Amino acid sequence: MAVELEGGQCRLRPFSCELGLLSRPDGSATFLQGDTSVLAGLYGPAEAKISKELPDRAALEVLLRPKVGLPGVLERSREQLLRQTCEAVVLGVLHPRTAISLVLQVLSDAGSLLSCCLNAACMALLDAGLPLAALFCGVTCALQPDGTILLDPTARQEQEARAILTFAISSSERKVLMSTTKGSCSVEEMQQCLAAAQRAATTIFQFYRDSVRRRYSKS
Amino acid sequence: MKATPLSNCERRFLLRAIQEKKVHPPFLAPFPKPFPIPFSAGCSRDPSRPRGPIACRAWRTNPLHMCVRVRVFPQRLDGRQCYDYRNIRVSFGADRGCCMVELGRTRVLAQVSCELVPPKPNRPTEGVLFFNLELSPMAAPGLEPGRQSELLVSLNRLLERCFRDSKCIDTESLCVVAGEKVWQIRLDMHLLNHDGNITDAASIAGIVALCHFHRPDVSVQGEEVTVYTPEERDPVPLSIHHMPISVSFAFFHQGTYLLVDPTEREERVMDGLLVIAMNKHHEICTIQSSGVVVLLQEQILRCTKITAVKVAEITELIHKALENDQKARKEGRKFGFAESISNQRITASKMESAAVDTNDVEEEAGEIIAKADPPSEVFATPVLHTPGTAQIGEGVESSWGDLEESEKEEAAEEEGESEAAAFECEKVETEDTSTLEETKTGEPIVLSDSEEEDVVILEPQELPRKTR
Predict the structure, then answer these.
(1) Nearest chain B CA: its distance from A88 CA (Å)
(2) Residues 6+ apart with CB under 8 A from B120
(3) Residue B383: band (very low, low, confident or very high) from pLDDT cuts 50, 70, 90
(4) Residue A118 C-alpha, separation from nearest chain B C-alpha, in angstroms
(5) Is some CB atom of chain B closer than 8 A to the CB atom of A123?
(6) From CA A41, how far away is CA B192, in angstroms rounded?
(7) What GO molecular function terms would the record report (chain A) (predicted)?
């Protein structure tokens, strides 16, 4: 099925991020994609409760808190996705029997929330200085009813889309760490969205690099 | 995460620091006119003042009218004076009713939302208010999710009294149809970083969010209620009578020393806490004293005077912040949290909207699909035997056989027995046999001869014969 793209160009919204803005957590970062913003705070590696500790590696726990109301099933499922992504990159075997807690707070939701959470989580891991095998970033694609791919969709674009695909892409060889889809799309469309997401990931990793370089430019 | 308890030497250090007054180097200052006997705060401790009656008189009649003064102030760890507040910074989000307040390093996020609900039965013409403060697990290492600690309960109660009982919001204006539909205004506050004085930060965040919030416009025609979207009609702000703001006072050394706006370290060593919530018209909205300190009447009155001054300053700051945000929205400039991130800071970085080249994704995707293994054979649609039992793929070797055997080896208790029986039942189904005698697994496996253990076998129920 032919996929039309807007003149061969998709646009990501303006990004911003701030590192180390909270004084209590070991690592903290806020990541903004357009009007969507997420604040991530990380504690670890720290002493774990006996019931939760693992004998050979660190126990990673992710908590996602919505802005209004109590966390529900959607937050729990997103927590699991984030946890699995983080566990794939964090070198937990270097810190056995410890606990790493990552807490994410949604500051505002204007589309692409899960990928914003993934990006904030990665920046918090960087800020805390945890050993990582690779970086990861989150990219959301929206498939419109006519087949156009939109990257980093806004809330309105997400509502009108036929399918929304979120990928977590690793920095080593742009491999896929996690993918979750809402809606229906064909195999070809999924591969096309994935290819587009991998292209976008290059831009995002460059942004990570610039932020961290700026952060440590005066030390 | 575990909270680190305060060590004794740190506690002693903090208490000692509050007790000791730092003496600034002496400096010359002119006497205030008219010429009174100088009894300023520092003079009695001034080591350079000549002692003795004649020397004193001579010193007092000094033609230069100069007095050697020294300044004394207690030593707070961050260099503040005892009545100083930390820097307060208010920033707004893109949504209406969303704001973040930073009191020094304490950070609170507040969000107001609204919903149409039936009113409370004993108050049919009033709207419903709901306040909730949450201590996010990222705020401090000791905060566990879902544990209702004393601190959380007391903070919530105090904030409820501050906002609800002070009647700062006009609830009558929230009524849409009396007895049927009213607005429920919900204020959610999240503590993001705990560096002391959560009460003040939360009260500022709450009142700013309430002032910032606009609810959808509503029109009632007979029985019909129409809620307009923001595009149809501009949302309407809430009707707020006054702005209660709380000020916290921490007492140390049995009430001898008083500090305004304690940090987290100071809170840990304080004896008692006095919280006064007041509005700019000098009306006390809430006053609460806690801890093991006994306060004198004149101390409390002094605190109320300090509160009045602080509340005036903070109200001024809030009004300015609200005005700036209002102007930015009206003039079409950018607003939201993105704007509050200053580009001057080295820890913050921004990237403008970037284009991503997606020119040949089609070809790339096509290549990947061509190279990939063909998808595994798709099974036919499931065969439905009876409601609740279906089968996919006939004649497929059951792999549950292995599981069943290992279950049998381990099992000695009831659960194991009935599980193994259940597995065997499943196996019976897939193998398409109808013999149910195999469901009885026979003798229980006895692991221990102890007479204390009582092994009770629950016989699995006879399953109804399934018709094929």
Answers:
(1) 22
(2) B126, B128
(3) confident
(4) 17
(5) no
(6) 9
(7) DNA binding; RNA binding
CB B277 within 8 A of CB B245: yes
Token pair of A74, please? 């959607």
Query: Does residue A126 sit in helix, strand or coil?
Result: helix
Longest CA–CA separation in chain A, Å: 56
For B209, phi then psi, to 5°, come to -65, -40
CA angle B187, B83, B33 (to 5 degrees): 140
Closest chain B C-alpha to A28 CA, distance in angstroms:
9
pLDDT reported for residue B463: 56
Average pLDDT over residues B248-257: 91
Q: Please answer yes or no on whether B355 and A10 come within 8 Å at the CB atom.
A: yes
Contact B138 A41 (CB under 8 A): yes
Instruction: For chain B, positions 350-409, list CB contacts with chain A under 8 A.
Output: 350-359, 361-362, 364-366, 368-369
Spell out which residues of chain B touch residue A149, defining contact as CB-CB under 8 Å.
358, 361
Residue type, A210: D
For residue B107, list chain A residues with Cβ-Cβ distance below 8 A.
22
Cα B287 to the chain's mean position, in Å? 22
The full 3-state SS of B322-376, as one line of letters, equals: HHHHHHHHHCCCCCCHHHHCCCCCCCEEEECCCEEECCCHHHHHHHHHHHCCCCC
ipTM of the complex: 0.92
- The per-residue pLDDT for A31 is 96
| Pair A110, A155: CB distance under 8 Å | yes
What is the rounded distance in angstroms from the CA atom of residue A11 to the CA atom of residue A7?
11
Minimal Cα–Cα distance from B347 to chain A, Å?
Answer: 5
Over residues B42-60, the mean pLDDT reads 46
Helix H or strand E segment including A44? strand A36-47
- Write out the H or E segment, with its range, that includes residue A31: strand A27-33
Q: With a cut of 50, say whether residue B440 has pLDDT above it.
A: no
Question: Can you say how many angstroms the Cα of residue A189 is from the centroid of all Cα atoms in its chain?
Answer: 22
Cα distances (Å, whole numbers) of residue A113 to A179, A187, A192, B186: 14, 24, 21, 23
**Whole-structure pTM value:** 0.79
pLDDT at site B222:
83
Written as one letter, the residue type at B17 is A
Residues with Cβ within 8 Å of B123's Cβ and at least 6 positions away in sequence, in order, are B171
Q: What are phi and psi of B127, to 5 degrees?
A: -75, 170
Contact A47 B139 (CB under 8 A): no
pLDDT along chain A (219 residues), means of 10: 50 93 95 95 92 94 94 95 96 95 96 96 96 96 92 94 96 94 92 93 95 88
Q: How many CB pairs under 8 A join A and B?
A: 180
8 Å CB contact of B362 and A210:
no
Residues B347, A195: C-beta atoms closer than 8 Å:
no
* A72 interfaces chain B, CB cutoff of 8 Å: no
Tell which of A9, A28, A42, A67 to mutate to test the B interface (max B CBs under 10 Å). Answer: A67
Cβ count near A77 (within 10 Å)? 13
pLDDT at B435: 40
Answer yes or no: do B188 and A15 touch at CB < 8 A. Answer: no
Residue B14 C-alpha from the chain's centroid: 27
**Contact (CB, 8 A) for A19 and A215:** yes
Characterize B133-159 residue by residue with b for buried, 16 or more Cβ atoms within 10 angstroms of its Cβ, and e for exposed. Answer: bbbbbbbbbbbeeeeeeeebeebbebb
Q: State both tokens at B41.
A: 């705060």
